Amino acid sequence: MLRAASFAVLMAGLLSLAAYQSGDPISLERPFPVNNTLAHIFLDWETTPVLPKDVVECSRSADSVQGVNVLMLNYSAYDSAYAGKVKDLIQKRLPGVLITEFWKGSGKDLTAALNGQSVVVVTYPATGSTGQIRAYGRVLANYVQKGGAVVFSGTDQFGMLQQYGLFDLDFGYFCTDLALHTKAPEHPILQDIPADFALQNYAYPLDVADPNFVVLSEVRGYPALGYKSMGAGKIVYIGLEYYYDEPVSTRILENTLRWLAPSETQVPAPVQPEANLTWANRSANRTEERLFAGSGKPALESTFDLKIYPNPYFEKATLDVNLETTAPVSVEMTDESGVTVAVLLPFRVLNEGLYRFDLPNVPSGVYFVKCQAGPQTTVRKVVKVAAQ
User: Fold this and answer.
1) CA 338, CA 229: separation in Å to the nearest integer?
2) Nearest one of 308, 362, 313, 371 to 336, comparing CA atoms
3) Nearest to 193 by CA among 252, 261, 153
4) What is the separation of C-alpha 65 from the centre of its chain, rounded to a whole number of angstroms?
5) Residue 298: C-alpha distances to residues 128, 351, 375, 382 (Å)
6) What is the DSSP annotation of 88-136?
7) What per-residue confidence (pLDDT) applies to 247?
8) 83: closest CA among 111, 110, 102?
9) Which pLDDT score, from 0 to 100, does residue 388 have?
10) φ and ψ at 58, to 5 degrees?
11) Average pLDDT over residues 97-107
């Protein structure tokens, strides 16, 4: 009888504790940085917080990314738990995406794994062999030049980003409870994102020295979100943490993958092993890929037209961009190796109409002018001839 009474009292006490809540029920505040071992122990035990109805995110249609192949490069990931959480978020928001994971292997192994992949997601780079990461960086650079896309998620180990070598930066750090400010709210990555927002996960701003890096969001003047075009592809840095499914940061990840998802004509060509590529056949392959939309209208309904005259040109040439509808537009000029030589128009929204730009007086050679208007990209080849 006494045992039965004791058990009843114990159960009543447990029920009382379960009913008691202290503080904000949706608070994700943590007493320690998430990037330490103790944090990961508790993160694996913690359940997903209950969010108010007005911030619950519903997945949008995955039609635009149906069948898109994403390779998760996890070799340098902080740990497997983080990589697993990022994978779960992508599958939850974009169930049509096909995910492959790459944990280790040689540069040739990574080259083989990249064939058929549209986007590479590098999860929280924080550890690994310097030589191996630099080798992966060279493979990724070749992949991006041919039209692929690489997304780096935020990290407090900015030196790892330097070792990949895909964009130039001086230093980085991590912070929390600081407001992020969007600099280009019209960009597709920032669709449905507030102009200013704060996250309870960590943000990882960088001091980016790369002049070709386009800042989309910043923390006190330091980029926390942005991208760089290189060759026919793009490199994106999302300086946010993904241990929790926060609506804003997860939407940014979803928007990024949607923006990078290629049309059928834009899937990157198979990546050849670096050792087997000569400079001549690299240039030939790159030219072939970059000109996928360079002659005539794309398969999709045209929203703009490009004209370059004269071509070839001697000192000065004119680029006419004729927009048929209002759209976010960017225009840049690169050399044959994919290095940007001029940003003619940083990403901004333009109304329909004719816009005229002067091409710079660059050294003689072959160049490419790439214009992106909304989801459509068109590339034109232009030749600069030497003075007679």
Assistant:
1) 9
2) 362
3) 252
4) 15
5) 42, 21, 11, 19
6) HHHHHH-TT-EEEEE-S--HHHHHHHHTT-SEEEE--B--S-HHHHHHH
7) 92
8) 102
9) 62
10) -105, 135
11) 93
CA distance 371 to 304: 9
Specify whether the CB–CB gap between 300 and 273 falls below 8 A: no
**Tens-digit pLDDT profile for residues 131-180:** 999 999 999 999 999 999 999 999 989 999 999 999 999 889 888 878 89
Q: Six-digit token pair at 72?
A: 């998760």
- Nearest of 269, 319, 318 to residue 292 by alpha carbon: 269
Contact of 188 with 327, CB cutoff 8 Å: no
Render pLDDT for 226-248 as a digit per residue (tens, 0 to 9): 999 998 899 999 999 998 889 99
CATH code for the structural domain at 53-266:
3.40.50.880
Q: Which residue has the tokens 């459509």?
A: 376
pLDDT at 30: 37
Strands 69-73 and 98-102: parallel
Mean pLDDT of 79-89: 92
CA atoms of 167 and 71, how far apart (whole Å):
20
- How far is it, in rounded angstroms, from Cα 386 to Cα 77? 48
pTM here is: 0.57
Dist. CA 213–CA 229, nearest whole Å: 8
Distance CA(244)–CA(105), nearest Å, equals 29
Residue 283 pLDDT exceeds 50: no
Q: Are 239 and 203 in contact (CB under 8 A)?
A: yes
Q: What is the CATH number of domain 291-384?
A: 2.60.40.1930
User: Which of 41-45, 269-273, 314-318 is the least confident region?
Assistant: 41-45
* Separation of alpha carbons 370 and 118, rounded Å: 19
Distance CA 263, CA 374 (A): 13
pLDDT score for 64 = 61
Q: Residue 353: which of 380, 318, 325, 329 has the closest Cα? A: 325
Domain regions of the chain by residue span? 53-266, 291-384
Is the torsion defined by CA of 231, 185, 247, 21 positive or negative? positive
